[in-house]
Write a structure and sequence with these properties.
Elements (H helix, E strand, L loop, with lengths): L10 E5 L28 H13 L4 E5 L9 H9 L6 E6 L8 H7 L3 E5 L5 H8 L4 H10 L7 E8 L8 H11 L2 E6 L14 H12 L2 E3 L10 E5 L2 E8 L12 E4 L4 E3 L8 E2 L1 H5 L4 H13 L14 H4 L2
Parallel strand pairs: 1-2, 1-10, 2-3, 3-4, 4-5, 5-6, 6-9
Antiparallel strand pairs: 7-8, 8-9, 10-11, 11-12
Bound molecules: S-adenosylmethionine and iron/sulfur cluster (SF4).
Length: 319
């Protein structure tokens, strides 16, 4: 369906938990997120019911995220159930990769279309300092293991953190090229703990990449279903993507909505607007009544992000 501004909304990111096994300094407080009681979190059958309703309103792509989605037991079963919904074309996952290895097989069987793995540095010490876990080798290993599953498209997402990984732009690009996966740089958004971190922008990265690999060529064919823009370089295998909500605002063509783990529909990541779906669902609302609430939310999707006034933690919104 379209919102008031004519944007076609066909993509939903669903956070299935606020919890995480890492403590990335720009995302998660050291003590973790405040614990919420179990029954405040949507059950999987409730998520599946909602996805069916979203799907009837035009949603075709579903991204499972968190927190860290793989810390929630049964996440792969949920992926399978969502993929089986008539009308859902693609289910994908965003993960830090720590728990991915043992689940790759079943994930492929469940029909996952793509997996985004977050990796901001290739330096073991820096990884440990940023995330609180000595886990770099685990992530590098699982990226390598993914190569045995050509049916799953793998992307590496690196957030641009000033004074942290600016000096690793080419190292990350070379690593992704070696692994045969796409690397995307995500501009740091001033959300939650992210406000305490400086970022750097697409143009700065582009300058570094063009110096190293030659002039960038825009890739016009559609690569993903989101806001990333992709480029190729003569001296580099594969392509590099940019998600640049700060320097190249893409709100005008935003096609996505979000569902938090507590059942709040968020039409825009950069706005505090949210519509509770959990309570009406548990009080017996029919599918039609829920669809009408969702339609209201989509219709009124804010025109653009207002990160400067948005308070929520990224891990709670679902990245
Ligand atoms: N735990 C999973 C992971 O790390 O991929 C999924 C959730 S995480 C919130 C999703 C993505 O959001 C990660 O790539 C993370 O680096 C990114 N992220 C978190 N805070 C951010 C911020 N303030 N600005 C930009 N990206 C951010
Ligand atoms: Fe966890 Fe992902 Fe946030 Fe890192 S970015 S703390 S892995 S939710």
């Amino acid at each position: 369906m379209q919102d008031r501004l004519g944007r076609e909304i066909d993509y939903i990111r669903i956070s299935i938990t606020d919890r995480c096994n890492l403590r990335c300094g720009y995302c998660m407080p050291e003590c973790g997120v405040p614990s919420v009681s179990h029954d405040m979190i949507l059950r999987f059958d409730e998520i599946v019911r909602l996805v069916k309703i979203f799907c009837s309103l035009g949603i075709k792509n579903v991204k499972i995220t968190g927190g860290e989605p793989l810390v929630r037991k049964g996440a792969v079963g949920l992926i399978k159930d969502i993929k089986a919904i008539d009308g859902i074309e693609k289910v994908s996952l965003t993960t830090n990769g720590i728990l991915l290895s043992e689940k790759l097989d079943v994930m492929a069987e469940a029909g996952i279309g793509s997996i985004n793995i977050s990796l901001d540095t290739l330096d073991r010490q820096k990884y440990m300092e940023l995330t609180g876990l000595d886990g770099l080798d685990i992530v590098l290993k699982v990226i390598d293991e993914c190569r045995a599953y050509p049916e799953i498209k793998v992307k590496i997402n690196a957030v641009t953190l000033a004074d942290y990984n600016r000096d690793e732009i080419c190292a990350l690009a070379d690593f992704a090229a070696d692994m045969g996966v796409t690397l995307r740089f995500i501009e740091m958004m001033p959300l939650g703990l992210g406000t305490g971190f400086g970022g750097y922008n697409q143009d700065e990265i582009m300058t570094v990449l063009e110096e190293a690999y030659g002039p960038a060529k825009t890739i016009n064919e559609e690569v993903g279903s989101g806001p990333a823009k992709y480029y190729s370089f003569e001296g580099l295998e594969g392509r590099i993507g940019f998600i640049s909500p700060m320097s190249h605002k893409f709100c005008r063509s935003c096609n996505r909505i979000r569902l938090t783990s507590e059942g709040l529909l968020r039409p825009c990541l950069g706005s505090d607007v949210g519509i509770d779906l959990r309570m009406p669902m548990r009080e017996g609302a029919s599918d039609e009544e829920l669809a009408s609430l969702i339609c209201e939310g989509i219709t009124d999707k804010p025109a653009g992000h207002r990160f400067e006034t948005t308070d929520s933690l990224m891990s709670k919104i679902g990245g």
